[in-house]
Amino acid sequence: AQSVAQPEDQVNVAEGNPLTVKCTYSVSGNPYLFWYVQYPNRGLQFLLKYITGDNLVKGSYGFEAEFNKSQTSFHLKKPSALVSDSALYFCAVRDDSGYSTLTFGKGTMLLVSP
Amino acid sequence: DAGITQSPRHKVTETGTPVTLRCHQTENHRYMYWYRQDPGHGLRLIHYSYGVKDTDKGEVSDGYSVSRSKTEDFLLTLESATSSQTSVYFCAIKAGNTEAFFGQGTRLTVV
Questions:
Q1: Which of A102, A104, A109 to mutate to test the interface with B (most CBs of B within 10 A)?
Q2: Are A103 and B60 in contact (CB under 8 A)?
Q3: What share of chain B is helix, strand, coil (3-state, %, to 5)?
Q4: Which of A21, A19, A51, A17 is nearest to A34 (CA)?
Q5: Is residue B23 exposed (0-12), middle (13-18) or buried (19+ Cβ within 10 Å)?
Q6: pLDDT tens digit sequence for A53-85
Q7: Is A105's CB within 8 Å of B103's CB?
Q8: Which residues of chain B have a CB within 8 Å of the CB of A92?
Q9: CA dist., res. B43 & res. B46, Å (int)
Q10: Which chain B residues are closer than 8 Å to A42 by Cβ?
């Protein structure tokens, strides 16, 4: 069975500083990895994905993620945080059964202070 | 929102009553999913569908049933609602080898 771990319930960062939201995963086959963001009282919005190819994936709103196969990690990063980045972030892994169901981490709340 | 509409958006119901949540899509996607979101658990898969009348159980399917009689509609039914089913429910769709798109969610409270 696949699983995703987000070890931090909350990450605090000052505006303008770089941010990292951590994610590690466990899968039996090739990993298909995703990051989603949820703003208050909203649905999940897709940020970026890793399917294959370059280990550094660029996504929406200036976010990027680094895939590290040896460490089974897929950390979300941004060089300079904005207050508007404050939200709940979910890492997810897609199963390779053909039905493409997602297994999510528990989520990390990112708080960016002015 | 990728053409996904969930209804109702909010519902309060009493323990023991049946509840049906609807997910409607406008883009003819084959795969549809129901997840529930709870603090400390992230999102967990309830049921999914890979075509009309083709459905299967997810991680937390107990107490839930689904139906898909048309490509565009995926219904989630709580036969007899319990307080443990108080949650936010999200429908999602996926097309091809792309990411999943999520609806705006239904906040269900069982009192």
A1: A102
A2: no
A3: 5, 60, 40
A4: A51
A5: buried
A6: 899 999 999 999 999 999 999 999 999 999 999
A7: no
A8: 43
A9: 9
A10: 104-105
